[in-house]
Specification:
Blueprint lengths: L3 H18 L2 H15 L8 H38 L4 H28 L10 E8 L3 H22 L2 E9 L5 E9 L3 H5 L4 E8 L8 E13 L13 E6 L15 E6 L4 E5 L5 H32 L10 E6 L5 E4 L5 E2 L2 H5 L4 H13 L14
Parallel strand pairs: 4-9
Antiparallel strand pairs: 1-3, 1-5, 2-3, 4-5, 6-7, 7-8, 9-10, 10-11
Helix pairs in contact: 1-3, 1-4, 2-3, 3-4
Length: 381
């Protein structure tokens, strides 16, 4: 067991390393620049710009404050250990225990900071627009799609993220055909990019009178939601806009008037539907925002494909491959087929305990030299 003084030194070294790979001096400089920006009286003349500046200022302020607090905690731990040198045995043990407790809190924060070093994408910090689609497996697949939606709702709750359900298409007998939702929280897109692809469920079908084992599939997609982005220009002439009556699968907060909106981008065939806002105008505005996010991701993927073609063949896991299997029978296991991480606690995963799977994927991606891209990723159609 490490001595308290060794624990403090190890934590101090990790904090210095974190300050290096997260470039603390740059964070401090940018925070000072934003402090000037947020004090400008005309900042909120452009609401979108004001929101972006205010959000970045708050996030960087929290980062700088965290580093300062962790440094202060380690200094306090060092002071406690110095005081213990002149104390009797009982007091020495008490002071060492207080120091170890402080170091334990610092180490927990450092674990979270080190996870951030695994994010390399331009839009990893952004909110995420997500979609789930039932695929092969009939009613079981539709039920599986609804189980995935619940899993991500639980995961978002665990992390303190906000999940905004925008559209749900109910299944013919049970479950859902598809769902569209936005997850809002720092690094939501970077985290959920690890989930993009085909998810496979193996279980005894609750819809089979002979209780046979059934394999079913559903896809998950996530793209960054870029508030106020000019990255994509959408010509209204390229859109077909349909309105329809909202369906009830989204829960009590889905309205039931003819205000739901479906927008089809004719040049690409991308379709977005939103039904959860209070009015047709609000549903259209949200659908346009989601459409811009999906078209922006499509453009980035096309640019990446062009660069890969120029660079020559590269070993990648295609989007059509299953990224993860959830087996409920004849044994219990969740296995990620990219990182090879597996766990027997399937129910915990289905209840939203995804962080270890996500972190294992991010570490695998770095070790495989795939930073900046998402292996086995894709946006479901």
């Amino acid at each position: 067991m490490a001595e308290p003084a060794d624990e403090v030194r190890a934590a101090r070294k990790r904090l210095e390393e974190a300050a290096g790979y997260l470039d603390l001096p740059r964070l401090r400089r940018r925070h000072a620049e934003l402090e000037v920006e947020v004090s400008r009286p005309d900042l909120w003349d452009d609401t979108a710009a004001g929101q972006r500046v205010s959000r970045e200022y708050g996030q960087l302020g929290a980062d700088v404050e965290l580093f300062d607090r962790l440094g202060a905690d380690l200094s306090d731990a060092e002071t406690l250990l110095e005081l213990s040198d002149d104390a009797d045995a009982d007091e020495r043990a008490e002071l060492a225990g207080e120091a170890s407790e402080l170091v334990g809190r610092v180490v927990a924060e450092l674990d979270r900071l080190e996870l951030r070093s695994l994010f390399t994408g331009e839009h990893d910090e952004a909110d995420a627009v997500c979609e789930i689609h039932a695929k092969d497996g009939g009613t079981d697949a539709q039920d599986w799609a609804e189980m995935l939606l619940r899993m991500y709702q639980r995961w978002a709750d665990r992390r303190g993220f906000e999940l905004e359900l925008d559209e749900v298409s109910p299944g013919q007998e049970a479950g859902i055909l598809s769902a569209t939702f936005i997850v809002r929280g720092r690094y939501a897109n970077g985290l959920l990019a690890s989930e993009r692809g085909v998810h496979r469920l193996v279980r005894i079908s609750p819809f089979d009178s002979q209780a046979r084992r059934q394999t079913s599939f559903a896809t998950f997609g996530a793209v960054p939601l870029l508030e106020g982005s000019d990255e994509v220009e959408i010509d209204e002439k390229d859109l077909r806009i349909d309105t329809y009556r909202s369906q009830g699968a989204g829960g009590q907060h889905v309205n039931v008037t003819d205000s739901a909106v479906r927008i089809t981008h004719l040049p690409t065939g991308v379709v977005v539907a939103v039904q959860n806002e209070r009015s047709q105008f609000q549903n259209k505005a949200k659908a346009m925002q989601i459409l811009a996010a999906r078209l922006g991701e499509r453009a980035r993927e096309e640019r990446a494909a062009e660069m890969e073609a120029l660079a020559g063949p590269k070993s990648m896991i295609g989007w059509g491959s299953q990224i993860r299997s959830y087996v409920l029978a004849p044994y219990q296991q969740v296995k990620d087929h990219r990182s090879d991480y597996e766990t027997g606690n399937v129910q915990a995963v289905l209840d939203g305990d995804l962080d270890e799977l996500i972190e294992a994927y991010l570490r695998w991606r770095r070790s495989a030299g795939l930073d900046g891209g998402v292996a086995g990723a894709g946006t479901p159609a």
